Write the structure tokens for this entry.
Amino acid sequence: MPEKEMTFGKFIDSIQTVHGELAAQASKAVNISLTLRNWIIGCYIAEYELRGANRAEYGQQLFTSLAKALKEAEIKDTGKRQLHNFHLFYKTYPQIVQSVSAQLQLPVKTLLNRLSYSHLTELFQIDDNLKRTYYEVECIKGCWSVRELRRQIASLYYERSGLSNNIEKLTEMVQSGAEITEPKLAIRDPYIFEFLGLKSKEVMGESDLEDALLDKLQEFMLELGHGFCFEDRQKRILIGDTYGFIDLVFYHRILKCHVLIDLKLEKFSHENIGQLNTYVSWYKKNMMTEGDNPPIGLLLCTQKNHPLVEYALAGMDNNLFVSKYQLELPQTEQLQDFLEEQMKELGEQK
């Protein structure tokens, strides 16, 4: 743990040291190492705030200065917001490293082995100890994914349980409909692949079939010509505190706009188009430059041999541009034929 007196330089060195030591253990226990690293950084921050030798020089700008210094040290996932989270994580879960005897707390070993840091990020935002423990237990018991944990918190599951006349029945209903994750390391966790220095393309493919289709689709769109310029794959964007991944991103030099493609191995749903519309809106606000037209969203959904193709024309209220878009982009039938052919071909290979 940190010395009682330390300079800002030693403060940065300490964080670099713990980062390096725990990153080296990632191949054996990547999630535990990541969680411990973040907890210890939070501990260092708390200790520096109390006893740092030159802490007064930084004052309210401590997190800003620390984030800048760690960025220069090339330590990922240590922005100002993340550092605030580490600090809160340390204060919320003191039992992670210390032996704290308190009722209604899960054993440290259980927390570290069964919950990823992404799970814990959702949990340490909860101020009420009993409420937080309730979600810890239910999350572990039901093997909830991070998305499912977030959804249950938003649905006021804890509060509904307190008001329910039949808690067992409510719990059974919730757990039976919950999205679960394997009780093992989820390498797709954004925090984990940042920690390991992996690129999103290496870890974000949902399945072999989807990866194969994306490979084919990327080649297909480029072969069509019509001005497509490939820009990115599994493009990672941060909206608030939520990460999104766009399957394929092109820039169309004739239409002068981005084309975002999202592939879903399922039938069309409003949830799918809502997600894509969110990505299009984000691109419109954050990625458009002078002379660009609004981005286009292209959702490709498949269901056996009957694919459904839906275009999202978010923000495209210019009739002339819409007409040009219809002329330059591949026809719906062309994409349907392509997906049917590729699904059949890939199915025969299995």
